[in-house]
Amino acid sequence: MDELDKNVPDDFWRKAFDEAAETPPARVWDTIEHRLDESNAPKIIPLWGLGPASSRPILWGTGLAAALALLIVGWWVMKTPTANPSIAQIQPSNSTENVAMAPATPEKLSATKSADQSADVATSLSKSSKLVKRPATTSASRMTIQVPSVSGTNDVGVAQIMASSNHKPNPLRTQPTAVATFHNPSMPTVTDGFTSAVNRLAVNSLTTDQIAVSGDMQARQNEAQVIEQLTGKPLRMRSQGPIQRIVWFQPAEELAIEPELTKETRKKREMWASVSAMPNAFNPMVSVHSPPSALKTVASNANQGSVNSRASFSMAYQAGAGVQLNEHWSVESGVGYLVGHSTVEAPTQSASYGLIAGANTDRSATVSNLYVDALRSSSKALSDAAPANYDVLSTNNAYLSQSSNYTSQGQQMLTNDYQYMQIPVQLGYQLRPRKRLSLAVLGGLLTNIFVRNTVGSDVVVTAKDGVYRPVSLAATMGARFRYRPPGRWSASLAGMYQPSLGLGTQTESQVQSQPTSTGMSFGVDYHF
Amino acid sequence: MQDEYALVEGCRRQDRIVQRQLYERFAGKLFVLCKRYIKDPDEAEDVLQDAFVKIYRNIDSFRFECPLEAWLKRITINTALKQLRKEKPWDNTADVQDLAPILPQADESLPTLNYKYLLQLIQELPPGCRTVFNLYAIEGYNHPEIAEMLDIAEGTSKSQYSRARMLLQQKLQSDGHPAHGHPL
User: Fold this and answer.
1) Using one digit for the tens of pLDDT, what is the confidence trace for A491-509?
2) Residue numbers in B near A252 (CB within 8 A)
3) Which of A206, A333, A435, B108 shows a CA-CA span of 20 to 30 A to B131?
4) Which helix (H) or strand (E) holds A526?
């Protein structure tokens, strides 16, 4: 190999540039941030142009409703009396200074640290949206303002500001997130002296005379209200100790406190919302565990056939949300709707079989068969609502005892359309965390809320009929692939198996059902 | 490493504060890197911007298989090369492979010069020489790799590098530094 191909490391040049760094101009980050904002801007889906919402009357209606709502809100805002603003509220929003700038007026306040340090800390407290210079290596700082609780005069206010941090000017622009909280001067325990001191503090803090005057007037009004509220109340004396007001703030974005910030951001859990549709095979696993009371004579008959159910193509829809608990574990829940189609094959009575065979009746028509009879006899409501021929064929004990007989030769196929509301709660374990194509194992519980079951074309069983449990539980388990390209959207594909835990029917019901569902879910997720 | 993990995770969540932290931490070094490849300061800023936008958009593809800084540098170098490819400044030098044996090797005992001075020297190189020199002498790629990256012949890469060393040597001598006292 040629000597040049070996590329002996040129340590001279490498070392020279290894730690070389040069702070780029601030506009570089501004541009980067702008470009990131552009790419992250949410896409607006014009719902008004889609589907039924695109019709002109609906557009006009929604427009009018929006306008009306705006008018009502506007009227309400105008009518509502404005509450007295606190000291923090009367500070100008476009100022880079606030109450914490008080150390700048030494005749009122004395700072324990040097003036420039105090100014730095105070500036950090600013809630202004403007760019500020702030200390580069400041950890969470604490500022304590001590004000005498009782003072005989209004012009004496002593504030002591203690800042426990190093302060070095840093040209970096940061997003101030400082929070300043001050005691409301209208608190009953605050005496005149304190109120005046706080007022003085507020006045000193404001940058323009106009705002200062308005703040002073507002504070005086507060004083009057306080005195008015205290009228008639017993006077409670307090010891003349100093009232300590602690103002906490935490610079949100500094390299020196990076570990704290990263800890905080780590706590911020990823959340997502999803919608999915699951084509599935739903099998109610129906059986008749004891015959209707009216048919006991038939039950002992050896010719009686059995009830079988078969799964048919069904659909389940689900909207949900999830949260990533840590790198591997997640929990998710939501609400779903299952339309479960199945076919039940049940023996008919020999009499009705004769009718069916003779008349070449539609196989889906509900006639007297073991399954339907069991459903009807399990529920008085269903029995009452039974058609006239049911009385003749099934409830006429004399007739039944003589001629009725369930025979497997006359099996009737009945469609069953189940409807359930579903509330899943699932835990997920990521097998491929942080990958673009992730794989998670899911497991949890599914609460099925029974809505109705339509048997054939004319028997509708609802939760009130007492046949099915209004609420039943099922296990849910499966695996899910999720493909997440850069951005907020992802697509998921999951294979799910959902066997019920226990019966889906009442224990006293003669029809027993233990539904099971197996399917493949397709979903779209939005990550926050 | 844990710190880098937190930075990467935050950037994956598109947490603007963490994105800013990543920028604050690495922008200085990457800016110097951009300046080594791109002489024009405004253009170097543009490349830095492009690189960081790429970094944030492709942070999902970072698998911690290498140090984060190395990954960031690679993206920045690729962004700079993409910018330079528009001009193809490395295509205009003949193959001078036979110059290789006469080139001396680095001597680690040499005094360290100010990086700003060295940066100025590199920036004064013709663009083709500068690119190959950066890739070979500082980034540590070999000539076959450089040839593939720049879509040039290996010989061209070698000749550009040789020319760069020769020019740097001359410049050092003219600035009063002993010619044989530096790794050129």
Assistant:
1) 999 999 999 988 888 888 8
2) 17
3) B108
4) strand A516-527
Are residues A54 and A138 located together in one domain of the fold? no
Q: A406: domain range?
A: 269-527
Of B35, B48, B161, the CB nearest to A28: B48
> DSSP letters along A384-399, please?
HT--HHHIIIII-HHH
Asked whether the beta carbons of residue B16 and residue A33 sit closer than 8 angstroms, the reply is: yes
Interface test with B, best of A10, A174, A430, A527 (most B CBs within 10 A): A10
| Set of chain B residues whose Cβ sits within 8 Å of the Cβ of A10 | 106, 136-138, 183
What pLDDT band is residue B74 in, cutting at 50, 70 and 90? very high
Interatomic CA distance for residues A259 and A251, integer angstroms: 13
Tokens of A25: 């101009």
* CATH entry, B2-85, from 1.10.1740.10, 3.40.50.720, 1.20.120.530, 3.40.1190.20: 1.10.1740.10
Examine the domain organization and report whether A229 and A346 are in the same domain.
no
What are the chain A neighbours of B20 within 8 Å (beta carbons)?
29, 253
Q: Is the pLDDT of residue A339 over 70?
A: yes
Interface with B, mutate which of A1, A2, A4, A255 (most B CBs under 10 A) = A4
Same-domain check for residues A293 and A232? no
> Which residue is associated with the tokens 């509330």?
A423
Which member of B118, B136, B142 has the closest CB to residue A16?
Answer: B118
ipTM above 0.90, yes or no: no
Flag whether residue A172 sits within 8 Å of chain B, measured between CB atoms. Answer: yes
Same domain, A297 and A356: yes
Number of structural domains in chain A: 4
Bridging pattern class, strands A109-111 and A159-161: parallel
Assigned CATH for B97-181: 1.10.10.10
